[in-house]
Every structure is written in structure tokens, then in C-alpha cells.
Specification:
The protein has helices at 2-26, 35-59, 66-108, 189-219, 257-268, 286-293, 318-327, 368-372, 391-394, 415-419; strands at 123-124, 130-131, 223-230, 242-246, 274-278, 305-308, 331-332, 336-342, 345-351, 381-384, 401-404, 428-432, 435-439, 457-464. With 466 residues, the protein is α/β, with parallel strands linked by helices.
Length: 466
């Protein structure tokens, strides 16, 4: 209970910080104080509250929250990514603007040249003032700055300045210790506002476009991928054995019976030898989603259809779902293995519970010794395990091939980079300590109905003998 409370608190804190950042970049930086900024602040607050409301509400039957809440979650993610990427070029642009503006301000404040009347010579002091020559006769004059109005005539022989001029000749530049440009800011606010609005518009339009593309991909039909995997121990007679592999169907608030029917029809067209459903079938109870899972009873294969639990089954009533899936005709491999005799050869097909499982009985965690111990080591063994990370333990038992899901292929690029920190293989074929691991992207999605860079997938795995 404490761990769950800690996780929820952390999630709320991260959500609040993300929305605070988005408000700053999309609202405060792009608007002047007034009603539009206030409206943007209210919108940011409501959207921040929508995220946890969706997470909690969809698990309690408030499915109407799913579309607006999960779509905003995807849009929020891409806005955050794009704005963070734009931080560097925007900062550089601001620096360039500031330097140009300072240079322009400095040029405007330089003293103007002072011409000397009558063709005489004028000396300047260190402070930039023109030194007035002594009067020498009737032709003596006082030098004046170019910007000064015409001076009153001076009587011959007089050394007094004209009336109204009590400071001698004036010059351009600082006067009375003040910089004429001293009251100017070191940047142009209108240019900064334009720059912030440009970045916000670019991020907004790009995020909306990427999210729309992702929705179309996620809601479309799964892609069929075919992969050939050689197994050193596979008997020659079993060469070409085909396993239709699907994971992460994720029946739930946004996916129902039609989704299952489409996947079943796609698998049946493959005429596979085996069918492997590798976890995360549902996001809800049997009472809520039993009808949506019903088409699984129509799966066809030569040597049987098999299922292992994923982490989401443990959030949805795992005991009920194990019994329901078994009723629909799929053999649930709960830390056990099944001998597959085909084409004159034998293959061990094993399955383990998800690594996050905890408890006893049907909810027991993965037990590799129970599933893989005391077997004939001369036979090839294929392990069904929801998470790729299970291969780190499976390799100790000499597993030839592990079929997994869980990662969704990252689901939304660049999230796949974070998934790679936890799982040894994110998508496709890899290897862990000598064990080959194939990870399918999954046929559904979790959370946002968005897939970018990782289309939904059903895979036909073809085993090849050496």
C-alpha cells in the first residue's frame, strides 16, 4: 500500500511539473498580462487534473474519460519533447538578438563629431569637450556644437558667452552622468515575444500532427511480420515449424470485441502450427471484458494455442482470467511446459508467469526451475515469457528461444529509448547470454491510442533447422 501511494505521489508531482513547464512556454512566454494569460493558466490547471482523473476513472468504469484524457497524455508528451528540443536553438536566437540590440544601442550613444567654425583649430580635452580659444580681437568666435541652435552674436572683445548659455559649449554624449540609452532594456520585448510564439506554434502544430498520425496507426490493423529463426537443436523434420505470436492485445476502455475478432481472423489466415498469446490480454475484469475476449475461442492451429500471463493480468483479476482463457480453449502455461510432437520430432514449449507477479497459486511469480528443470537437454525449448528481461534467468536453463512482448516496441518514439534502459530487447530479434529473444510490438496499445515508430504487430515465427 505504501509503495502504491509513493508511486501515485511521484506521478502526480511529475505531472504537475510538466504542466508548469508547458504553461510557462506556451502561455506565460507567449502572452502579455491579461485575460488570455489567465485563461491559459486555467486550461493548464484543468489539463493537469485530467491526467490523474483519467488514470483513476478508467479503472473504475468511467470510460468516457479515456479518449480526451489519453489523447491529451500523448499530446502532452510530444509537446514536452519538442519544447525541450527547441530550448537550445531558442536560447541561441535570444543570445544573438541581445548582442545585436546591445551593439545598436552602443552605436546610438557615441558622441557626434563637433565641427569647428571659421576654419580655426580646436583642441579637445580628455573628457570630449571642446576647449574654447581665447578672444584675440574683433574676429574671435566661440565654437558651437552641430546640434546647438544658432548662438546670439558676440560683441567684439567680449569673453562672456551668449545669454542663456551658462555651461559653455555643449557636446553630444553623456551629460550630468547619465547615459541617454540607460533606460533601455538589453533586449527588445516584442522580438522575444515573437520568438516565443514561433516556438510555441511550431511545437503545437508538430505535436498535433505526430499525435494524429499515431492515432491512425494505433487504431489501424496490425502489421504482419514474418521472421525466420534458426535453432541448433531443432530436428530436421521440424524445419519450418510456424508459431503465430501476438502480445499486448490490451482489451479495455478503447478496444473491444471487434479488435479481438480482427486479430483472430488475421492469425487464422496464417494456418500456423502453434499460436502463442504472450500476455497483457486485458485491462479490466472478466465481467467487463469477457465478451470482448470471447472470439479467442475461434483461434485455429495444428498443435494448439497457448497463453502466458502479463503484468496487466495481475491488475485485472488474474485467477478469473486464467480460468476464462482456459475455457476459451487456450492452454495457460503457468510455470510449466508442454511437449510438442510434430513431423517426427519433439520440441518443449514452456511458459512462465510474469516477472512482476507476487503471491501464491495462479498469482505466483515466475518459476524457471518448475518450467525448465528436469527436461531432456537434447530437445530444443521455446519459452513464452511476457517480458524480455526474463531471458536473463531463462538463459541459465539453456533456453534456445524466448518469445516476448510487453515493450510495445516503445509505442511512442522516443519513449523506446527509456524502455531500453529496462529491457534487453525492445523490438525484433536479439540475444541475451546465448538465448535468442524475439520481441513482438504487440497488437494493441496501453494508455494513449497512439503508436509512433512502432506499429501494431502480429508475427509469424518460423523455426529453421541447421
Amino acid at each position: 500500500m505504501l509503495a502504491m501511494a509513493t508511486f501515485v505521489g511521484f506521478a502526480v508531482l511529475v505531472t504537475a511539473l510538466i504542466h508548469l513547464y508547458l504553461w510557462k512556454r506556451l502561455v506565460r512566454d507567449t502572452t502579455r498580462p491579461g485575460r488570455w494569460r489567465k485563461a491559459g493558466g486555467v486550461a493548464a490547471l484543468l489539463l493537469a487534473l485530467l491526467v490523474p482523473a483519467t488514470m483513476v476513472g478508467t479503472r473504475n468504469g468511467s470510460y468516457w474519460l479515456a479518449w480526451p484524457g489519453y489523447l491529451w497524455l500523448a499530446l502532452m508528451f510530444y509537446l514536452l519533447v519538442l519544447l525541450l528540443v527547441l530550448e537550445v536553438p531558442v536560447a541561441v536566437a535570444k543570445l544573438v538578438l541581445r548582442r545585436h540590440e546591445r551593439a545598436a544601442t552602443g552605436a546610438a550613444g557615441e558622441p557626434a563629431p563637433v565641427p569647428v567654425g571659421g576654419g580655426g583649430r580646436a583642441d579637445t580635452t580628455a573628457t570630449g569637450h571642446v576647449a574654447e580659444p581665447a578672444a584675440t580681437g574683433p574676429t574671435a568666435t566661440s565654437p558651437v556644437a552641430l546640434a546647438d541652435p544658432p548662438a546670439a552674436p558676440v560683441e567684439a572683445g567680449s569673453t562672456e558667452p551668449p545669454a542663456g548659455d551658462d555651461s559653455g559649449p555643449r557636446t553630444a554624449g553623456p551629460q550630468d552622468g547619465r547615459d541617454p540609452a540607460g533606460d533601455r532594456p538589453d533586449h527588445d520585448p516584442s522580438r522575444r515575444l515573437l520568438l516565443a510564439r514561433g516556438a510555441a506554434i511550431f511545437a503545437g502544430l508538430t505535436a498535433a500532427g505526430v499525435t494524429g498520425y499515431g492515432v491512425r496507426t494505433a487504431m489501424g490493423p496490425p502489421r504482419l511480420d514474418r521472421v525466420q529463426i534458426p535453432l541448433a537443436k531443432l530436428p530436421r523434420g521440424m524445419d519450418g515449424l510456424r508459431i503465430a505470436t501476438v502480445s499486448d492485445i490490451h482489451l479495455g476502455p478503447l478496444r473491444g470485441r471487434a479488435h479481438t475478432e480482427r486479430i483472430v481472423a488475421m492469425i487464422n489466415r496464417l494456418d500456423a502450427d502453434l499460436v502463442a498469446v504472450v500476455g497483457d490480454l486485458v485491462d479490466g475484469s472478466v465481467a467487463e471484458l469477457g465478451a470482448a475476449a470471447e472470439p479467442l475461442r475461434d483461434l485455429r492451429s495444428r498443435y494448439g494455442s497457448f497463453f502466458v500471463t502479463g503484468n496487466h493480468e495481475y491488475y485485472s483479476g488474474v485467477e478469473e482470467w486464467v480460468r476464462e482463457v482456459d475455457r476459451l480453449g487456450l492452454r495457460v502455461l503457468q510455470n510449466e511446459r508442454q511437449e510438442i510432437q510434430a513431423r517426427g520430432g519433439v520440441l518443449d514449449l514452456a511458459g512462465v508467469n510474469d516477472v512482476t507477479a507476487a503471491g501464491t497459486g495462479l498469482a505466483a511469480p515466475a518459476d524457471y526451475a518448475a518450467a525448465l528443470g528436469d527436461r531432456d537437454p537434447s530437445r530444443p525449448v521455446v519459452l513464452l515469457a511476457h517480458q524480455p528481461v526474463a531471458a536473463q534467468e531463462a538463459a541459465k536453463f539453456g533456453v534456445d528461444l524466448q518469445l516476448s512482448g510487453h515493450t510495445h516496441g516503445g509505442q511512442m518514439v522516443p519513449f523506446n529509448l527509456l524502455v531500453k534502459l529496462q529491457q534487453p530487447v525492445v523490438s525484433g530479434l536479439g540475444e541475451v547470454d546465448g538465448t535468442k529473444v524475439y520481441v513482438t510490438n504487440g497488437a494493441g496499445f496501453w494508455g494513449p491510442p497512439v503508436r509512433v515508430g512502432a506499429p501494431p504487430q502480429v508475427t509469424l515465427v518460423e523455426l529453421r533447422a541447421p
